[in-house]
Amino acid sequence: MTSDASLPTAPIRVVVVDDHQILRDGLVALLSALPGIDVVGVAADGREAIHVVGESQPDLVVMDIQMPHLDGIEATRFLTGREPAPRVVMLTMNEDDMTILSAIRAGASGYLLKGAGAAEVEHAIRSAAAGGMVFGAGLAATVAGFFAGSAVTAPRPELPFPDLTDRERDVLERIAAGHSNDAIAAALFVSNKTVRNTVSAIYAKLHATGRADAIVKAREAGFGRDERRGTMEP
Question: What pTM was estimated for this model as a whole?
Protein backbone atom coordinates (compact mmCIF):
# COMPACT_ATOMS: atom_id res chain seq x y z
CA MET A 1 0.00 0.00 0.00
CA THR A 2 1.39 3.40 -0.92
CA SER A 3 1.77 6.04 1.78
CA ASP A 4 2.53 8.99 -0.52
CA ALA A 5 0.87 11.99 1.10
CA SER A 6 0.46 13.65 -2.29
CA LEU A 7 -2.06 11.05 -3.40
CA PRO A 8 -5.75 11.93 -3.07
CA THR A 9 -7.40 11.04 0.24
CA ALA A 10 -10.97 11.10 -1.08
CA PRO A 11 -12.22 7.76 -2.41
CA ILE A 12 -11.25 7.18 -6.02
CA ARG A 13 -14.35 6.35 -8.03
CA VAL A 14 -13.51 3.66 -10.59
CA VAL A 15 -15.32 2.02 -13.52
CA VAL A 16 -13.99 -1.34 -14.74
CA VAL A 17 -14.37 -2.19 -18.45
CA ASP A 18 -13.55 -5.66 -19.80
CA ASP A 19 -15.46 -8.05 -22.02
CA HIS A 20 -14.27 -11.15 -20.12
CA GLN A 21 -16.51 -11.57 -17.10
CA ILE A 22 -14.04 -13.62 -15.05
CA LEU A 23 -11.33 -10.99 -15.46
CA ARG A 24 -13.80 -8.18 -14.88
CA ASP A 25 -15.19 -9.76 -11.72
CA GLY A 26 -11.71 -10.52 -10.42
CA LEU A 27 -10.58 -6.93 -10.91
CA VAL A 28 -13.72 -5.61 -9.26
CA ALA A 29 -13.11 -7.88 -6.27
CA LEU A 30 -9.48 -6.76 -6.03
CA LEU A 31 -10.26 -3.05 -6.20
CA SER A 32 -13.29 -3.24 -3.91
CA ALA A 33 -11.07 -4.67 -1.17
CA LEU A 34 -8.69 -1.70 -1.29
CA PRO A 35 -9.24 1.27 1.04
CA GLY A 36 -9.99 4.53 -0.70
CA ILE A 37 -11.16 2.95 -3.95
CA ASP A 38 -14.85 2.63 -4.82
CA VAL A 39 -15.93 0.62 -7.88
CA VAL A 40 -18.96 2.58 -9.10
CA GLY A 41 -19.66 0.77 -12.36
CA VAL A 42 -18.71 -2.00 -14.76
CA ALA A 43 -19.05 -2.44 -18.52
CA ALA A 44 -18.46 -5.27 -20.97
CA ASP A 45 -17.51 -3.19 -24.04
CA GLY A 46 -16.57 0.31 -25.09
CA ARG A 47 -20.08 1.34 -26.06
CA GLU A 48 -21.48 0.31 -22.69
CA ALA A 49 -18.53 2.02 -21.00
CA ILE A 50 -19.55 5.38 -22.45
CA HIS A 51 -23.03 5.05 -20.96
CA VAL A 52 -21.80 3.77 -17.59
CA VAL A 53 -19.22 6.55 -17.27
CA GLY A 54 -21.83 9.13 -18.18
CA GLU A 55 -24.11 7.87 -15.42
CA SER A 56 -21.54 7.26 -12.68
CA GLN A 57 -19.04 10.09 -13.35
CA PRO A 58 -15.97 8.18 -12.11
CA ASP A 59 -12.53 9.62 -11.47
CA LEU A 60 -10.85 6.82 -13.37
CA VAL A 61 -11.64 4.04 -15.82
CA VAL A 62 -9.71 0.77 -16.04
CA MET A 63 -10.11 -0.08 -19.73
CA ASP A 64 -9.48 -3.20 -21.79
CA ILE A 65 -8.60 -2.66 -25.47
CA GLN A 66 -9.92 -5.53 -27.57
CA MET A 67 -13.69 -5.54 -27.05
CA PRO A 68 -16.78 -5.87 -29.24
CA HIS A 69 -18.92 -2.97 -30.51
CA LEU A 70 -16.36 -0.28 -29.64
CA ASP A 71 -12.74 -0.97 -28.72
CA GLY A 72 -11.02 0.49 -25.70
CA ILE A 73 -8.91 3.00 -27.59
CA GLU A 74 -11.90 4.57 -29.36
CA ALA A 75 -13.85 4.59 -26.09
CA THR A 76 -10.88 6.26 -24.37
CA ARG A 77 -10.66 8.89 -27.10
CA PHE A 78 -14.35 9.67 -26.64
CA LEU A 79 -14.20 9.78 -22.82
CA THR A 80 -11.08 11.93 -22.58
CA GLY A 81 -12.47 14.33 -25.16
CA ARG A 82 -15.40 15.47 -23.05
CA GLU A 83 -15.86 17.27 -19.75
CA PRO A 84 -15.49 16.15 -17.07
CA ALA A 85 -12.96 13.67 -18.45
CA PRO A 86 -11.99 10.68 -16.30
CA ARG A 87 -8.44 9.40 -16.18
CA VAL A 88 -8.04 6.13 -18.10
CA VAL A 89 -5.65 3.26 -17.38
CA MET A 90 -5.47 0.61 -20.09
CA LEU A 91 -5.21 -2.98 -18.81
CA THR A 92 -4.66 -5.34 -21.72
CA MET A 93 -2.78 -8.29 -23.16
CA ASN A 94 -1.60 -6.19 -26.12
CA GLU A 95 1.99 -4.89 -25.90
CA ASP A 96 2.32 -3.90 -29.57
CA ASP A 97 4.18 -0.59 -29.89
CA MET A 98 1.61 1.01 -32.17
CA THR A 99 -1.23 0.02 -29.88
CA ILE A 100 0.55 1.63 -26.93
CA LEU A 101 1.13 4.77 -28.98
CA SER A 102 -2.52 4.84 -30.07
CA ALA A 103 -3.63 4.56 -26.44
CA ILE A 104 -1.42 7.50 -25.43
CA ARG A 105 -2.70 9.58 -28.32
CA ALA A 106 -6.26 8.72 -27.29
CA GLY A 107 -5.58 10.23 -23.86
CA ALA A 108 -4.76 7.22 -21.67
CA SER A 109 -2.92 8.06 -18.45
CA GLY A 110 -1.53 4.56 -17.99
CA TYR A 111 -0.94 1.28 -19.74
CA LEU A 112 -0.55 -2.05 -17.95
CA LEU A 113 -0.37 -5.61 -19.16
CA LYS A 114 -2.81 -8.10 -17.67
CA GLY A 115 0.09 -10.00 -16.14
CA ALA A 116 0.64 -7.09 -13.75
CA GLY A 117 0.44 -7.88 -10.06
CA ALA A 118 -2.15 -6.50 -7.67
CA ALA A 119 0.30 -3.98 -6.18
CA GLU A 120 1.22 -2.67 -9.62
CA VAL A 121 -2.44 -2.24 -10.58
CA GLU A 122 -3.17 -0.42 -7.32
CA HIS A 123 -0.17 1.87 -7.74
CA ALA A 124 -1.20 2.69 -11.31
CA ILE A 125 -4.74 3.59 -10.29
CA ARG A 126 -3.70 5.77 -7.38
CA SER A 127 -0.94 7.51 -9.35
CA ALA A 128 -3.08 8.10 -12.44
CA ALA A 129 -5.92 9.44 -10.28
CA ALA A 130 -3.42 11.87 -8.76
CA GLY A 131 -2.50 13.16 -12.22
CA GLY A 132 0.46 10.96 -13.08
CA MET A 133 1.30 8.87 -16.13
CA VAL A 134 1.95 5.20 -15.37
CA PHE A 135 3.27 2.41 -17.57
CA GLY A 136 3.87 -1.16 -16.58
CA ALA A 137 7.15 -2.96 -16.18
CA GLY A 138 8.77 -3.57 -19.54
CA LEU A 139 6.81 -0.77 -21.23
CA ALA A 140 8.61 2.24 -19.73
CA ALA A 141 11.49 2.12 -22.23
CA THR A 142 9.09 1.90 -25.17
CA VAL A 143 7.06 4.87 -23.95
CA ALA A 144 10.22 6.87 -23.20
CA GLY A 145 11.29 6.25 -26.78
CA PHE A 146 8.00 7.67 -28.06
CA PHE A 147 8.45 10.86 -26.07
CA ALA A 148 12.17 11.20 -26.81
CA GLY A 149 11.45 10.97 -30.52
CA SER A 150 8.42 13.27 -30.23
CA ALA A 151 6.38 10.37 -31.61
CA VAL A 152 3.33 11.26 -29.56
CA THR A 153 3.11 14.93 -30.48
CA ALA A 154 4.78 14.96 -33.87
CA PRO A 155 2.69 16.23 -36.81
CA ARG A 156 1.49 13.64 -39.28
CA PRO A 157 2.33 15.19 -42.67
CA GLU A 158 1.75 11.87 -44.39
CA LEU A 159 -1.96 12.16 -43.64
CA PRO A 160 -4.22 14.30 -45.80
CA PHE A 161 -5.72 17.38 -44.12
CA PRO A 162 -3.23 17.42 -41.18
CA ASP A 163 -5.15 20.25 -39.47
CA LEU A 164 -8.06 17.90 -38.71
CA THR A 165 -8.39 16.44 -35.23
CA ASP A 166 -8.90 12.70 -34.80
CA ARG A 167 -12.63 13.26 -34.22
CA GLU A 168 -12.95 15.47 -37.30
CA ARG A 169 -11.08 12.88 -39.35
CA ASP A 170 -13.50 10.20 -38.14
CA VAL A 171 -16.50 12.35 -39.02
CA LEU A 172 -15.05 13.19 -42.44
CA GLU A 173 -14.54 9.48 -43.14
CA ARG A 174 -18.22 8.93 -42.45
CA ILE A 175 -19.27 11.93 -44.52
CA ALA A 176 -17.21 10.64 -47.46
CA ALA A 177 -18.91 7.25 -47.06
CA GLY A 178 -22.27 8.98 -47.49
CA HIS A 179 -23.51 8.85 -43.89
CA SER A 180 -26.05 11.40 -42.72
CA ASN A 181 -25.51 13.62 -39.69
CA ASP A 182 -28.10 11.58 -37.79
CA ALA A 183 -26.24 8.35 -38.54
CA ILE A 184 -22.91 9.87 -37.51
CA ALA A 185 -24.36 11.15 -34.23
CA ALA A 186 -25.81 7.72 -33.42
CA ALA A 187 -22.54 5.93 -34.25
CA LEU A 188 -20.42 8.28 -32.13
CA PHE A 189 -22.90 8.66 -29.23
CA VAL A 190 -23.01 12.44 -29.56
CA SER A 191 -25.75 14.96 -30.24
CA ASN A 192 -26.73 16.17 -33.69
CA LYS A 193 -25.59 19.63 -32.65
CA THR A 194 -22.12 18.31 -31.90
CA VAL A 195 -21.97 16.67 -35.31
CA ARG A 196 -23.16 19.85 -37.03
CA ASN A 197 -20.47 21.88 -35.25
CA THR A 198 -17.82 19.32 -36.19
CA VAL A 199 -18.96 19.30 -39.81
CA SER A 200 -18.78 23.11 -39.92
CA ALA A 201 -15.21 22.97 -38.59
CA ILE A 202 -14.32 20.41 -41.26
CA TYR A 203 -15.75 22.62 -44.01
CA ALA A 204 -13.64 25.54 -42.77
CA LYS A 205 -10.42 23.49 -42.63
CA LEU A 206 -11.01 21.94 -46.05
CA HIS A 207 -12.14 25.29 -47.53
CA ALA A 208 -15.21 23.42 -48.72
CA THR A 209 -18.30 25.28 -49.92
CA GLY A 210 -20.64 22.60 -48.57
CA ARG A 211 -21.17 18.90 -48.02
CA ALA A 212 -20.88 17.90 -51.67
CA ASP A 213 -17.62 19.80 -52.05
CA ALA A 214 -16.27 18.24 -48.83
CA ILE A 215 -17.19 14.75 -50.07
CA VAL A 216 -15.36 15.32 -53.37
CA LYS A 217 -12.23 16.58 -51.61
CA ALA A 218 -12.36 13.81 -49.02
CA ARG A 219 -12.75 11.05 -51.59
CA GLU A 220 -9.94 12.47 -53.71
CA ALA A 221 -7.76 12.22 -50.57
CA GLY A 222 -8.75 8.60 -49.99
CA PHE A 223 -11.53 8.93 -47.42
CA GLY A 224 -14.66 6.80 -47.60
CA ARG A 225 -13.24 4.03 -49.74
CA ASP A 226 -14.35 1.10 -47.56
CA GLU A 227 -18.01 2.02 -47.24
CA ARG A 228 -20.03 4.51 -49.21
CA ARG A 229 -23.59 4.04 -48.18
CA GLY A 230 -26.14 6.13 -46.35
CA THR A 231 -28.03 9.32 -47.06
CA MET A 232 -26.09 12.37 -48.15
CA GLU A 233 -27.29 15.68 -46.83
CA PRO A 234 -26.93 18.99 -48.65
Answer: 0.61
